[in-house]
Amino acid sequence: MKTLLKRKKFIFGASFLIIMVTLSLLNTVLNDGKIRQVLLVYNEDGSLQKAPPYPPFDVFLFGSDMYGYDMLHTVIEGAKYSIGIVLIVAFFRMLFSIMLSYFLFRVPERVFKVIKAISEPLSFFPQTLIAYFLLRTVVMYTIEGFHHPLWVRVVYEFIILILVALPALTVQLIEQKRRIWKEEFIESAITLGGSKRHIYFKHVLPQLYEEWVLMFGQQFLQVLTLLVHLGVMLILFGGTILGDGDPPTSVTHEWSGLIGLNKRFMLTYEWIVYVPILFFTLTALSVAMINKALSDWFKHKDMIRKSK
Amino acid sequence: MVKHGAIRLVYIVLQYIIGVLLFIVIGSLPVLLRDLTYDFEGYFTKIRELSVKIFTLSDLTYNGKHDMISAVMGRFFYSMKTLGTAFFAALILAFLLSYLIVLFFGKKKDYILSFIEIIRAVPDVLWMFLLQVFVIWIYKSFGMKLVQTVSLGSDNQAVLLPLISLSLPIFLFLTQIIVLKIFEELDKQYIIFAKSKGLTPIYMLNMHVIRNISQDLLGHFKTIIWMMLSTLVMVEYVFNMDGLMLFNIKNLSVELFVFTCILFFTPFFILYRLLDVRRDPR
After folding, report:
1. For labelling, which of A213, A303, B61, B136 has a CA lying 20 to 30 Å from the CA of A26?
2. Which residue of B has its CA nearest to A266?
């Protein structure tokens, strides 16, 4: 564990994520989720000097949006939602597919072939597109308001985001377990009379949990990408509010929403779009770094074990 | 021999039909879940109706009135052309870069590989936005328009930027795999033998290593196609290209969506089966 904590990549990635989430939570607890806002800046003699949006390095470090809200503050407020959503979705994707693959991995070869044959066409659904179709009618705001309360929308969105990846992930996990099951030491364990459950928990799991940790990181990145895609296409987490004439707004300050909503400012006030994108990228890079550090660490551990 | 082949053919056709049915069943889900009304009756009616329409290829419409096939085919070929060009560009560039790494930067490969692995995590949308802004920034500061940033009508089609942003993720992915596999292969016994025979490194790479790793690369083909299809949606959306994916987003229709998926599925299905036959020619 100590050798892991000393890796630079791990320290950078983990500290970025932890700082973002902590600041974001503190903002809710201590500051009641409010965001710093400067409406207009006046000269000393009372005449108007500046009006929002302020560019970066002027009033605020990262500039402000159209209404004078600090972009950095907005992004920090949104961090807990974005990172939280992605963590939850990635976690449940892994959990469900691990459970499904536990029940399915010892089926006969013939049945497994059928499962594979069925899952193959599923990889031709562009994930973004099917999620867009399924979510659009539910999360969009209509003239009569939202048809469903917030928690229904959120749970529904979670379910869709999880289900979209389950088939492919499950098949991948089944293949992994079948590979391990064919190893020699499993055969000797069966000969020695270990029950299937015993073998699974004592021999198969220890082989796999490292791979699962890495897969979790990959899923995290995939969900993040899917979330950005949906955000750009204006499917915002928790619901998109479409007023008449007004630009659509988001329920939370979640990052993908910030990108999608402010895309129209891309040519005039580009920082409004680029600050959330920057933080998205930093999050993705942090997770990739943590993943890389972990996989190096696992390899290192393996080498030490073998050389003993 | 003939009998075996016939059984195989029947199996493949069956698999294709199951695939199409699966598309219909899942593609119709938006009807079931529209506004969370759980419209089971409408769902099953839709499935039955769609199955008849798709297997007979007649009466396919979008928006309930326009004929679909004529509108879809041109856009489908446009999307496939973009996809194919991006794929081959990525493949060629990935091979060039991996040769460069293998031949000249062998000692630094660990750093290069971990850099590629980390940079690969950047969401593809970011590349698109960055490219657009870069071109616009050049236009603003030097007054010269390098390439079209967004498609506006048929005269001003964006070509280069979509291709770059579509092939960039694949290019990084492929480079990573190819370099890893080549170094794995270089550790093997026969390479030492080849070296002692005095073969040049280039000859060894071209004649032996590439042939041996091509099987592994084909195994990643499905992942690559899957990645490209989801990037294609965003590329067409962001660059406003008149392809099939954007057409889907503009005309939300279950029929169109199912038909689109089947269209993309068919050529790749045939390709996969051909690859299977090649790998296992019994």
Report:
1. A213
2. B133
Q: Of the candidates B75, B85, B61, B74, which has an alpha carbon nearest to the alpha carbon of residue B244?
A: B75
Q: Which of A117, A137, A281 sits opposite B123 (nearest CB)?
A: A281
- Look up the domain containing B17 and give its range: 1-59+252-282
Question: In CATH, what number is assigned to the domain containing residue A31?
Answer: 1.10.3720
- Residues A216-233 have pLDDT tens digits of 988 898 888 888 888 888
Residue ranges making up the domain that contains A160 = 2-35+70-307
Say if residues B103 and B201 touch (Cβ distance below 8 Å). yes
Pull the structure tokens for residue A238: 């928790």
d(CA A45, CA A276): 36
The reply to whether residue A117 touches residue B230, judged by beta carbons under 8 angstroms, is no
Average the pLDDT over A256-265 and give the result: 74
Q: Over range B213-220, report the average pLDDT.
A: 82
What single string gives the DSSP state of each residue in B197-248? Answer: HT--HHHHIIIIIHHHHHHHHHHTHHHHHHHHHHHHHHHHHHTT--SHHHHH
SS3 A120: helix
- Count of Cβ atoms closer than 10 Å to residue A152 Cβ: 13
Tally the domains of chain A.
1
3-state helix, strand, coil in chain A (%, to 5): 70, 5, 25
**Predicted complex ipTM:** 0.84
**DSSP category for residue A60:** S
Question: How far does Cα A98 stand from its chain's mean position?
Answer: 19
Distance CA A262, CA A275 (A): 11
Separation between Cα atoms, residue B186 and residue B183, nearest integer Å: 5
> ∠ CA B140-B144-B148 to the nearest 5 degrees?
90
Taking the C-alpha atoms of residue A86 and residue B105, their distance in angstroms, rounded to an integer, is: 37
Does residue B77 sit within a domain? no
Find the closest chain A residue to B13 by CA distance.
A117
Residue B65 lies in a domain: no
Mean of pLDDT over chain A = 79
Closest residue in A to B221 (Cα–Cα): A123
Q: How confident is the model over B7-19, as pLDDT tens digits?
A: 888 888 888 888 8
Residues of B within 8 A of A121 (CB-CB) are 18-20, 22-23, 265, 269
Question: What is the total residue count of chain B?
Answer: 282
CA distance B238 to A239: 22
pLDDT at B233 (0 to 100): 87
Beta strands per DSSP E along chain A:
41-42, 48-50, 240-241, 249-250
Yes or no, beta carbons of B129 and A273 under 8 Å apart: yes
- E strand or H helix at A46, and its extent? none
pLDDT tens column, B87-118 = 999 999 998 988 888 888 878 888 888 888 88
Asked, for residue A259, whether it belongs to a domain, the answer is yes
Return the closest-CA partner of residue A129 out of A266, A216, A235, A206. A235
